[in-house]
Amino acid sequence: MNDRIIFDDVSKFYGEVLGVNRVSLSLPPGITSLVGPNGSGKTTLMNLLTGLVQPTRGSISVLGMTTMDATEFFRAVGYCTQFDSFPKGVTGWDFVFDGLTLHGIGYEEATQLTKESLERVNLGEAAMRKVAGYSKGMRQKIRLAQAIAHRPRVLVLDEPLNGLDPMARAESLALFEELGRQGMHVLISSHILEEVDRISDRIVLMTGGYVVAEGNIHEVRQEVHEKPMQVLVRCDKPEMLASKMFAMNHCVEAKLHKDGGGVFVRTRDLDEFYRLLNEIAAEGEVKIDVVAPADDDANAIYQYLIGSDGGLS
């Protein structure tokens, strides 16, 4: 499977401190988002993938290559880290161009690729300015430009949306989606969960150095099916519906929506819930307007796995 990123029982320990433990993944092309709080192992996983650190145990294969295939490997991988540090006095153009020459790319090709990548992140006009004078968002974009300049097949992005204004964030997300559609591997670490939901082909949920679930949003929801599912029911008599729901053995919680126009119900048996809801609707006592899953997204799934006190940051 030379189009996949494969972690085979990978662990990384820093002395006695756990980085990641027993990670096994097989990731196809497209957009994969790593979700988890600080210290969950996301950055360690990215550093392992890009060869910046070596595993304590297990093996990693990126498109059939390992870091032993150094030249080919590092031409295939681009990494945009969180580290906001640049050489003194460097311009945006120099930062991208010099990175390309480190890959052994000649002057003419490096010039063309530098221009192309700066335009893709909308920094063409600021290219000759010193990075020290850039805003935080511009510095984030110049790191992204360097990461994509050599046209990698795998792009690793550690919190790539930090510091971006809404328009720049939308532009970056559109670029990530375009790269994913082109068959690139795009691996993103982000705590902006609504955007993870929108652009990701799959998510990998991490906590405490472990992968606790992976797949698309709906597949991951199935992995945690033993957790109660929350459904929002919009109706004209939410108090009455809530009381009827409490009479069902599989309903573990019912609470009114803050606007008073509906009720959130947690159920351990979604099929039975919908069957009984249809019966209530047929009785005619409660007029039901809308029924929709209230937590089939990365944030709710993650909170199921780690508890409400384990918020992302």
Written overview of the protein:
With 313 residues, the chain is α/β, with parallel strands linked by helices. It folds into 2 domains: 5-217, P-loop containing nucleotide triphosphate hydrolases (Rossmann fold), CATH 3.40.50; 228-294, Lrp/AsnC effector binding domain/regulation of amino acid metabolism (RAM) domain (Alpha-Beta Plaits, 2-Layer Sandwich), CATH 3.30.70.920. The chain is 37% helix and 27% strand. The chain has helices at 42-49, 70-76, 92-102, 107-120, 136-148, 166-181, 193-199, 217-223, 238-246, 270-283, 298-306; strands at 5-14, 17-27, 30-35, 57-62, 77-80, 154-158, 185-189, 202-207, 210-215, 229-235, 251-256, 262-267, 288-293. The chain has a 6-stranded mixed β-sheet with strand order 5-6-7-3-8-9, sandwiched between helices. Strands 11-12-10-13 form a 4-stranded antiparallel β-sheet, covered by helices on one side. β8 (202-207) and β9 form a beta hairpin. α4 crosses α5. The two termini are 34 Å apart. Mean pLDDT is 87; it is low at 308-313.
Low-confidence stretches: 308-313
- Share of residues in helices: 25-40%
Reading the helices and strands in chain order gives: EEEHEHEHHHEHEHEEHEHEEHEH
- β-strand percent reads 25-35%
Strand arrangement, largest sheet? Answer: 5-6-7-3-8-9
- CA-CA gap between termini: 34 Å
Total beta-strand segments: 13
Counted by DSSP, the helix tally is 11
**Major sheet size, sense and barrel closure:** 6 strands, mixed
The CATH level-2 architecture of the largest domain is identified as 3-Layer(aba) Sandwich
Backbone CA Rg: 23 Å
Structural class estimated from helices and strands: alpha/beta
Mean pLDDT, rounded to whole units? 87
**CATH homologous superfamily heading of the largest domain:** P-loop containing nucleotide triphosphate hydrolases
Give the count of structural domains: 2
Could you please say which CATH topology of the largest domain applies here? Rossmann fold
Task: Please write the CATH class name of the largest domain.
Answer: Alpha Beta
Q: What best-fitting shape do the alpha-carbon axes yield?
A: elongated
